[in-house]
Amino acid sequence: MSNIYTNALRLVPTPGQRISRSEADDVIARILRDRGSYNVPVVVRLAADGSLLDIQSGCGKNGAFYEFWEERREDYACMWERFSNDGQERDLLILHRGTEREELGPCRYAFDEVRIKGPKGPQDAQGAQAQGSHGITEVLPDLGCPWQTIGDGVWRARAFGQYLSNNDRTDIERAGPNSREVVWDPSLGDADPGDPAPALATPTSPSTYPWEALRVEPQALRTWVEHGGPWAESVELLHGGRVVHRSQWELDTVLGEWGWEERCADDWDNVTNPEFLSHMRSL
């Protein structure tokens, strides 16, 4: 099987114009053509006022995927794309505007809160034991802001940062090699909470496959996200109250081994590349 690509498209109408539901249906049909989406569920969000059209699909084995833009580019201001290749490590941010296609490099994602779940008290933390009588906050990463307890064994810090990731939305069972079924405005509750390693719900598809966050900043948090720190059960990064990245211990039911796994739920709402932010603010 060849690499599977996930294309997250954001279509922006020309100033003063709006995208209707019928127009959105036509755009989707032109993108899918006769080959459909390759092993990626087709998920669509249309803003209530028609100001944005977001489409998730997979361009693999669909040679006509980008012909839509070549045919209709004069009708729209631009099209943003987050491109994921399951054979690589991070998403690319691409801007389509008129006849130009500009790769803006890796897509950077933001978070504004960190939550760490661990033992119920400092006496259970190896890090705290090593530091004698210090409290649990003494062994949490120093993010330059205070940590607060928000539950039994859960700590929160209002820290700002960013990272790279690969938001692969491959789902062979749901989609298959020629998927044409369209899911409109999915609920964030679509992930199955009964799954022993539940998929992390996103504004589009649940994040099923583990992918690492890369170059996490602030750097003090990097080891915790990648390895769990000295005692963490899970580390969550949030943006606007939504979990956008989760690292946690998961049981591999095939190997019967526990491993520290990461799952990404990034979307347009936590993209932090300055070119994208500047354009969206101008709208």
How would you describe this protein?
With 283 residues, the chain is α+β, with helices and mostly antiparallel strands. The chain folds into two domains: 5-107, Alpha-Beta Plaits; 110-166 and 187-270, no CATH class. It has five helices and 16 strands. The protein has helices at 21-32, 67-72, 126-130, 222-227, 274-282, and strands at residues 5-13, 42-46, 53-57, 76-85, 92-97, 100-106, 108-111, 113-117, 148-151, 154-157, 161-164, 182-184, 214-217, 234-239, 242-252, 257-264. The strands form three sheets. The chain has a seven-stranded mixed beta sheet, with helices on one face. It has a six-stranded antiparallel beta sheet with strand order 9-10-8-14-15-16. The radius of gyration is 21 Å and the shape is globular. Mean pLDDT is 90; it is low at 121-134. Residues 197-206 have a biased composition (Low complexity). Residues 184-206 are annotated as: Disordered.
Low-confidence stretches are 121-134
How many domains make up the 3D coordinates? Answer: 2
What number is the mean pLDDT?
90
Oligomer: single chain
Cα distance, first to last residue? Answer: 41 Å
**Tertiary shape:** globular
Helix proportion: 10-25%
SSE pattern, N- to C-terminal: EHEEHEEEEEHEEEEEHEEEH
Structural class label: alpha+beta
Work out the number of β strands: 16
How does the major sheet shape up?
7 strands, mixed
Cα-based radius of gyration, to the nearest Å: 21 Å
Strand order of the largest sheet: 6-5-4-1-3-2-12
Give the DSSP E fraction (strand runs of 2 or more residues).
25-35%
Count of helical regions: 5
